């Protein structure tokens, strides 16, 4: 059996076309959606991430503001900037690129963002809203994974989903979204003694670990859907995920590649959340 590829690039393009149409409609009503992206310091990976986010905004007609600060910016100065953006009616989403320099408390910064503009969905209030089934913003990567699963036409009701990883930004919100879709959810982590015992029972596996070959073909039930969030480097420096793609594609029904699976969806869902924020206004 050879699994069908879940193409995150194609799905992203389709969703971005929808986002562009919604942005155009808001702009025609004088309410162009706006995203503020804040970068503190010179981290090279972060520079690429913010550049990609700003470019993606431009491509779909979302107004974006990129604020770059030196690494010695004080925590108070950053908090003051966030307060100003919270009160700026042209801005519907605020994103502070992580990691921040060590002297700035990231929790304090995330909590300073108004919940109505927390398009990353990282704040305690956003997480609580999601936990209790309210209308908070969904964390972008898990939200993208849900769209990828949805694109296979699978109804998650009654299915067993196993999430590997329990980070606040990926694993935990992923498990909550699967639960909301009526899956039966198991969360595995580094203290899970025998991962395969759980993954072999799963109709859907989402791997969000950060370690290649965490999931191999012998750990996957025939016909399962496998979503690979991981971003790692192989021995040749090539980007790869957490799952053994070549082995698992012979067992699974659907699988996301790395690159070209979850990665492109994360920025797309950030754009989607920004549009949703502007529409809520
Ligand atoms: P993280 O905060 O480091 O969390 C990793 C999780 O994996 C932890 O919960 C950890 O368990 C668990 N884990 C570690 N070793 C394990 C093992 N041997 N068996 C089972 N579980 C294990 O990482 P993250 O931020 O969630 O990101 C995970 C991966 O996704 C990374 O590769 C990251 O780069 C990637 N990522 C990709 C995107 C994208 O857009 N494509 C977005 C975000 C993240 P403990 O809690 O017990 O330590």
From TrEMBL:
Keywords: Amino-acid biosynthesis, Histidine biosynthesis, Hydrolase, Methionine biosynthesis, Multifunctional enzyme, NADP, One-carbon metabolism, Oxidoreductase, Purine biosynthesis. Residues 6-120 form the Tetrahydrofolate dehydrogenase/cyclohydrolase catalytic domain. NADP(+) binds at residues 165-167. Pathway: One-carbon metabolism; tetrahydrofolate interconversion. GO terms for biological process: L-histidine biosynthetic process; methionine biosynthetic process; purine nucleotide biosynthetic process; tetrahydrofolate interconversion. Residues 139-280 form the Tetrahydrofolate dehydrogenase/cyclohydrolase NAD(P)-binding domain. GO terms for molecular function: methenyltetrahydrofolate cyclohydrolase activity; methylenetetrahydrofolate dehydrogenase (NADP+) activity. It comes from the Bacteria. It catalyses: (6R)-5,10-methylene-5,6,7,8-tetrahydrofolate + NADP(+) = (6R)-5,10-methenyltetrahydrofolate + NADPH; (6R)-5,10-methenyltetrahydrofolate + H2O = (6R)-10-formyltetrahydrofolate + H(+). One of its GO terms (cellular component) is cytosol. Catalyzes the oxidation of 5,10-methylenetetrahydrofolate to 5,10-methenyltetrahydrofolate and then the hydrolysis of 5,10-methenyltetrahydrofolate to 10-formyltetrahydrofolate. Belongs to the tetrahydrofolate dehydrogenase/cyclohydrolase family. Homodimer. HAMAP family: THF_DHG_CYH. NCBIfam families: PRK14186.1 (NF010783), PRK14189.1 (NF010786). This is Bifunctional protein FolD.
């Amino acid at each position: 059996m050879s699994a069908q590829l879940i193409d995150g690039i194609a799905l992203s393009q389709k969703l971005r076309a929808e986002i562009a149409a919604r942005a155009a409609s808001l702009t025609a009503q004088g309410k162009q959606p706006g995203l503020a992206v804040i970068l503190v310091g010179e981290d090279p990976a972060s520079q690429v991430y913010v550049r990609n986010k700003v470019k993606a905004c431009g491509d779909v007609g979302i107004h974006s503001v990129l604020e770059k600060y030196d690494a010695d910016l004080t925590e108070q100065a950053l908090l003051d900037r966030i307060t100003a953006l919270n009160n700026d009616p042209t801005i519907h989403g605020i994103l502070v690129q992580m990691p921040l320099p060590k002297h700035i408390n990231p929790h304090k910064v995330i909590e300073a963002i108004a919940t109505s503009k927390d398009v990353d969905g990282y704040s305690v209030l956003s997480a609580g809203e999601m936990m209790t089934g309210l209308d908070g913003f969904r964390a972008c990567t898990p939200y993208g994974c849900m769209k990828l699963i949805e694109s296979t036409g699978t109804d998650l009701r009654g299915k067993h989903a196993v999430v590997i990883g329990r980070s606040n930004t990926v694993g935990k919100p992923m498990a909550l979204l699967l639960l909301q879709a009526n899956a039966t959810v198991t969360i595995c982590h580094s203290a899970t003694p025998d991962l395969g015992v759980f993954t072999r029972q799963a109709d859907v596996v989402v791997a969000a670990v950060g370690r290649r070959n965490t999931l191999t073909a012998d750990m996957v039930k025939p016909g399962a859907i496998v979503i690979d969030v991981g971003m790692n480097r192989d021995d040749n420096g090539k980007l790869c995920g957490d799952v053994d793609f070549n082995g698992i594609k012979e067992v699974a029904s659907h699988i996301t590649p790395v690159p070209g699976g979850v990665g492109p969806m994360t920025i797309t869902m950030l754009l989607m959340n920004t549009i949703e924020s502007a529409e809520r206004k």
